[in-house]
Amino acid sequence: MSQRSAIRIGVIADTHGLFDPTIRRHFRGVDHILHAGDIGDRSVIEQLEQIAPVTAVSGNVDEYEHSGFPRQIVVRRNGKKIAICHVLYEKGKLTQEAKLWLDRERPDICVFGHSHRSTIFQSGPTLLFNPGSAGPKRFSLPRGIGLLTIQKENVLLKLIRLSDNANRRNRSTDVKLPKNKGETT
């Protein structure tokens, strides 16, 4: 992908099968969407693909590789190396697997999910970004998504809070992620 003056990327995680229609408004005009796992239902990806191309990884809710999505992936967008995974932290600590992966890949940005906590944090050379959970409200944490803008050398991150009252009717129940790689529903 050639470098442009600026690109906008929608960042989402932990949808758990819920596609909140307000995401369309927030992601309008993005060049790409990154989903950091716990998709929960393939129809979420299909809805996001109507907005922009999607790169997604699997999470524990998706049964990882059995979903057909990888656990981790690294992409380049506008000259920046972006690592995407679901579990980066477990019980408040960087997992050993994640540490080794980040040390090996040395990305500029790492997008992750799992904790349902919005996070922007610099860890060595890597900017860590968790948009929070866009799925049904859980715990006492707010729901959210994010925007990542890459302008030449500048990286701008924005957290967007979603309403806590997501419309439960938007939760898909008909289309499930395949249980085995290559299996269709």
Intertermini distance = 32 Å
Give the % helix.
10-25%
Overall average pLDDT = 88
Catalogue the unreliable spans: 171-185
Biggest sheet, open or closed, and with what strands and sense? 5 strands, mixed
CATH homologous superfamily caption: Metallo-dependent phosphatases
Q: In the CATH hierarchy, what is the class?
A: Alpha Beta
Structural class given helices, strands, pairing?
alpha/beta
3D shape:
globular
Instruction: Indicate the proportion of strand residues.
Output: 25-35%
CATH fold-level label: Purple Acid Phosphatase, chain A, domain 2
Number of domains in the coordinates?
1
Second-tier CATH architecture: 4-Layer Sandwich
Radius of gyration: 15 Å
- H/I helix tally: 3
Q: Which series of helices and strands comes N to C?
A: EHEHEEEEEHEEEEE
Give an overview in words.
It is a single chain. With 185 residues, the chain is α/β, with parallel strands linked by helices. The protein has one domain (7-163): Metallo-dependent phosphatases (Purple Acid Phosphatase, chain A, domain 2). It contains three helices and twelve strands, in the order E-H-E-H-E-E-E-E-E-H-E-E-E-E-E. The strands form three sheets. Strands 3-2-1-11-12 form a five-stranded mixed sheet. The chain has a five-stranded mixed sheet with strand order 4-5-8-10-9, with no helix packed on it. A two-stranded antiparallel ribbon has the order 6-7. Helix 1 links the parallel strand 1 and strand 2. It is globular. Mean pLDDT is 88; it is low at 171-185.
